[in-house]
């Protein structure tokens, strides 16, 4: 970033620290397979009036609930769910969620593929020349072990998921290994694309404050073309096919609510026969990728590690 912005590393570090301390940004990470997992699902959880806070509090502590978004209706939560197995996901959807106090109904959309995911979306704050100056991760040393101990790999990815800017010395102390082993392991995870780093910004402060989830049922013959076309829209952060009431799920961040109908007109034009589409406007995100947010949408220091 220093080369891209022509700002000293020290100045950038101070600016990032201020944003971090204000709860506006977190640099985190997750195993790269999450967005393509067969045990990933999106659930629309309908609630009794007045039970949103209780349901949110319970689900916030659930590791399998990666992200929680409250809709404008005030009686619906959209939960991004990740389970360690198919049976665990079935239990979550059929038993755990319906039995929560205040839950009236659970509509599940089982992910079948991901064409675009959040870590590949950016704010477009840099022009192409500036972005080109940002280098990729350094390759591992020639002497670095390519195969990591499974228990160590899981522990390291969990630590990076909480804060990917944790100093190597701290990680080495907490995990009981040398700093060099930490450097080598991180390089291996990134270079082999086993682990994905991302810097998440609170959307209200990002310049893209309006968050909307869409659930779309597209004629099967058009599904692939419509899904691919959606990935080209700059507002679209996630696009995935699904099995459920909708066969296409996607979420968008918009500059303002006024462009909503323009976007939806573009989306409608993608389907020749007029697909069924349903929107859920998000007013509050209380959990994102395991990180708990406060009522203002800012990151707190609380983190519930997802399944690894």
Biggest sheet layout: 8 strands, antiparallel, barrel
Q: What value does the Rg take, in angstroms?
A: 20 Å
Give the CATH topology of the largest domain.
Alpha-Beta Plaits
Question: Which regions are unreliable across 5 or more consecutive residues at pLDDT < 50?
Answer: none
Oligomer designation? single chain
C-alpha end-to-end distance? 30 Å
> Overall 3D geometry?
globular
* Share in β-strands: 25-35%
Query: What is the helix content?
Result: 25-40%
- Number of domain units: 2
Written overview of the protein:
With 308 residues, the protein is α+β, with helices and mostly antiparallel strands. The protein folds into 2 domains: 2-31 and 124-201, no CATH class; 34-122 and 206-303, Alpha-Beta Plaits. The chain contains 10 helices and 12 strands. The protein has an 8-stranded antiparallel barrel with strand order 2-4-3-10-7-9-8-5. Strands 1-6 form a two-stranded antiparallel sheet. A hairpin with a 2-residue loop joins strand 10 (276-288) and strand 11 (291-293). The longest helix is centred in the N-terminal third of the chain and has 13 residues, at 9-21.
């Amino acid at each position: 970033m220093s080369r891209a912005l022509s700002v000293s590393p020290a100045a950038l570090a101070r600016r990032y620290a201020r944003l971090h301390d204000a709860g506006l940004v977190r640099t985190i990470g997750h195993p790269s397979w999450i967005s393509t997992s067969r045990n990933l699902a999106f659930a629309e959880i309908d609630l009794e009036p007045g039970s949103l806070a209780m349901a949110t509090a319970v689900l916030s502590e659930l590791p399998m609930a990666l992200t929680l978004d409250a809709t404008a209706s005030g009686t619906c939560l959209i939960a991004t769910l990740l389970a360690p197995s198919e049976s665990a996901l079935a239990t979550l959807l059929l038993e755990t969620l319906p039995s929560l106090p205040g839950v009236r109904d659970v509509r599940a959309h089982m992910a079948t593929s991901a064409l675009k995911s959040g870590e590949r979306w950016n704010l477009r704050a840099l022009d192409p020349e500036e972005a080109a100056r940002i280098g990729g991760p350094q390759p591992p040393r020639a002497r670095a072990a390519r195969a990591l101990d499974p228990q160590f790999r899981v522990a390291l990815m969990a630590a990076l998921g909480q804060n990917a800017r944790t100093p190597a010395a701290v990680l080495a102390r907490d995990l009981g290994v040398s700093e060099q082993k930490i450097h080598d392991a991180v390089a291996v995870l990134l270079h082999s694309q086993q682990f994905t780093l991302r810097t998440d910004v609170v959307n209200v402060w990002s310049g893209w404050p309006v968050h909307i989830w869409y659930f779309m049922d597209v004629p099967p013959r058009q599904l692939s073309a419509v899904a691919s076309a959606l990935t080209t829209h700059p507002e679209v952060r996630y696009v995935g096919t699904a099995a459920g009431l909708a066969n296409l799920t996607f979420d968008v961040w918009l500059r303002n609510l006024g462009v909503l109908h323009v976007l939806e007109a573009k989306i409608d034009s993608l389907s020749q026969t007029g697909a069924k589409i349903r929107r859920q406007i998000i007013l509050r995100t209380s959990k994102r990728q395991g990180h708990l947010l406060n009522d203002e949408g800012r990151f707190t220091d609380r983190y519930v590690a997802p399944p690894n």
